[in-house]
Amino acid sequence: MSSQPAIIKVAAAKPASEAIKKAASIIKAGGTIAYPTRCLYGLGSDVFNDAAVKGLFSIKQRSAQKPILILIDHIKQLDRLVAHVPEVAADIIRQFWPGKVTIVFEAGAAVPPDLTGGSGKIGIRLPGHPVALALVKAVAGPITGTSANLAERPGCHRIGDLEPAVARQLNLILDAGPLEGGRGSTVVDVTEGKRPIILREGTISGDEIMAAIDG
Fold first, then answer.
1. Mean local confidence (pLDDT), 134-155
2. Which residues lie closer than 8 Å to 184 by C-beta, 6 or more apart?
3. Domain 6-214: which topology?
């Protein structure tokens, strides 16, 4: 897109249903939007739309070898997206979802290979932010949860800091004002056996993760 996208202001705690419906309709039609998560703004596209996913990699100038995480609105969606849910993952889900922890699973057959970066794994989170959760519910399917930035550049916690090279390629921006910023979700790989591997320590410490599975 060559022109600037529309910006809709939304209340972080209770977003207007019309704004969410409009954003969801754009995603379902193959578009890409910016929306708030707890710490940073993210880019949302339809996980099962190959053209939209490829476009997302292009918007971010992201290497095809780097996977993109996805957001769901209910743990039942895992049945479609992952090969299986290990008990260690179930412990983490019970303790820390929604929000704050992204779990890396073995991807199920339904997950487009582009999203896994060729790894055969997919990161999934149930979002804690009301706007992100409402958006996934309205789409009625998983959406991408990658940060709204160019590859290797910092994410943004205010729409005013969104890089123009990203913004002009979007179809819509949901602006919930300044976000928390700071550390993002902790990323935990549960594909390597009974002990999880902490790939990135965020809001939840590695010690807290281990205590949850050992308790």
1. 95
2. 39, 40, 147, 155, 200, 202, 203
3. DHBP synthase (3.90.870)
